[in-house]
Each structure stands twice: as structure tokens, then as C-alpha cells.
Amino acid sequence: GAVVSQHPSRVICKSGTSVKIECRSLDFQATTMFWYRQFPKQSLMLMATSNEGSKATYEQGVEKDKFLINHASLTLSTLTVTSAHPEDSSFYICSASFGTEAFFGQGTRLTVV
Amino acid sequence: AQTVTQSQPEMSVQEAETVTLSCTYDTSESDYYLFWYKQPPSRQMILVIRQEAYKQQNATENRFSVNFQKAAKSFSLKISDSQLGDAAMYFCAYRTGTASKLTFGTGTRLQVTL
Question: Which 8-state DSSP code applies to residue B31?
């Protein structure tokens, strides 16, 4: 099956700094990628849809200036959490569509201290 | 807006027994897909099974099968011969035929006991 790689798997950063998370489709081209956030013991909440070569589409309530998404190529989308604060600590997951299926990265656990 | 509801926050099953996880959804679309994903402690999302709305036949994948009731907008997952490795969070998910983003239910935590 299709493989999506997400990096890093864990990151700890200081409050006020920025963190970049990468999502790569390894064996297919993904014109659309998705970024989710998952709080402990909760479901996946869609943050934004990342479209190659165009601006991301953010879900209601998600700050686009805080969560910067870039989809510069057909195999790479990045999520940058800017000026991170402890409340941004969470598990972030990306996925890429291939046909009618979605394939997920391994997730990134972000801890802001 | 489409919604997906999983009414069972937690379920427990004995090893080798059968368990059914419930899922209902709400949509006005006629073309859509339904999925069950498993999220083990590693938190990697794993596709368990999928169902196309236009197909009347229920999907099966080895020990996993679904009961798709389109009129009732119900999509339950049956796990037969449960194994310890089946213990995980299970999420029901929906997408339309045209939009590729998924809408997830709140999840059901499945415990498998000896």
C-alpha cells in the first residue's frame, strides 16, 4: 500500500519558538494532504486541507497564521506551528489521499514547555 | 454537515469471541464511502475495512466484516475470533465521493481480555 512518512515523531520545543512538521508521500504523488490534531483520548480533528501549489484551506476555528501549511511539491506538505505555546501541545497527524483512500503518517507528538 | 456518531466509548470482548462496534452517520449525499480505522497504542492509523455506498454487499476482510444499512445510515463493524492484537481505538469515518477529507466519529476503545 501507499506509504506516508511524517517527521519528526516527537518534538519538544520552548514556548515562543516555531516547529516544522513534515509529511511526505513516499511512493505516490499526493495533490491533497490533510492535517489533523488529536487530543488525548479524543478523535481526529481536521485542521486544514493542503493543496499542492495553492493555499491551504483551514477549518473553522483554526488560526491560519499560527498553523502555517506549505505544499510545495506533490510529495511534501509541511505544517509549521509558529510561536508555539503549551496549549499547542498535542498529537498532529497528516494524511494523503490516493484514489479514494487516505493513508496516514505516523504522527508527531508536540510538547511545548 | 455530515456527522459520524459512535455511541460506544468503550467495549470489551474475550479472546476468540465476537464483538460488534456501532456507527451511525448523517448525510444527504448519495455517493460516499465509509471506513473503519484502527488506532493502536502506537497511534498509527490503520485502515481496517471500507465500504462504498453504492455497493449493496457488505464488505469483509478476513475476521472483519461490516453490516451496512444504507437506509438506516448505519455502519457497524464485526470482529470475529477476537485477538489480543485487536485491542485499540476504532474510528468510523465518512467521506463523500467528491471531497476527499474524512469525517471521523469519536471512537470506541476496544479491550480484549483473556
Answer: S
Which single residue is written with the C-alpha cell 457497524? B76
pLDDT in tens, A23-46: 999 999 988 899 999 998 899 999
Q: Which residues pair with A76 in a beta bridge?
A: A24, A73
Contact assignment for B43 to A91 by CB distance below 8 Å: yes
Cα B28 to chain centroid, rounded: 20
Helices and strands (H, E) in chain A, number of each type: 0, 11
CA–CA dist B87, A38 (Å, integer): 19
Q: Go through chain A and tell me how many residues it has.
A: 113
What band does A87 get if pLDDT is binned at 50, 70 and 90? Answer: very high
CB atoms A101 and B43 under 8 Å: no
Q: What is the pLDDT of residues A50-59, one digit of tens each?
A: 988 888 999 9
